[in-house]
Write the C-alpha cells for this entry.
Amino acid sequence: MASHADDRREHEQAIHRCQVEYKRLDDRLHAMYLDKLDDRIDTAFYDRMSAQWRTEQTRLLREIERHGSAEESYMADGIRLLELGRNASRLFAKQPVHEKKRLLNLVLSNCQWDKGDVHAVCRQPFDLLAETVASGTTVGAQQTALSSGSPVWLGNLDSNQD
C-alpha cells in the first residue's frame, strides 16, 4: 500500500510539473504574440519560437496523459489481483498440473516441508492478501458482525459508533 501511495504521489508531482511548464510556455506564447503585434519581434522569429514551444506543449500534454494512464493501469491491475485472490482456490482446482506449478511459483517462495507440514512464504503482493485473510479469521465474531467487509481494513473504531 505504501508503494502505491508513493507511486501516486510521484505521478501527481510529475503531472503538476508538466502543467506548470505548459502554463509557462503558454504565457510566453501570449507575451511573444503581443510583442509581434507591437513590432518588437519579427514574424520569422515568432514563427520559429512559437512552433518550438507548441511542440514542447504537445510533448507535455502526452506526458500528462501517460501519467494519468499509468494510474488507471495500476488501479485496474489491483482490481484484477483482488479478483484473482478471491477466486484463486476455484481457479487453481481447474488448472492442469503444469499451470498449477506455474501459479504456485508466481505466488509462493521459499516453501519448506517440515515433518509433514508445508511452510510457505508468499511473494509480494500476495503476502498482504494472505496476512489480511489470516488476521480476518482470528478476529472475533463481534467485529465480524460490525462490518460486511474485512474488519482488518476498518482500523480502530471511533467513539461514535451509532
The chain has a mean pLDDT of 80.
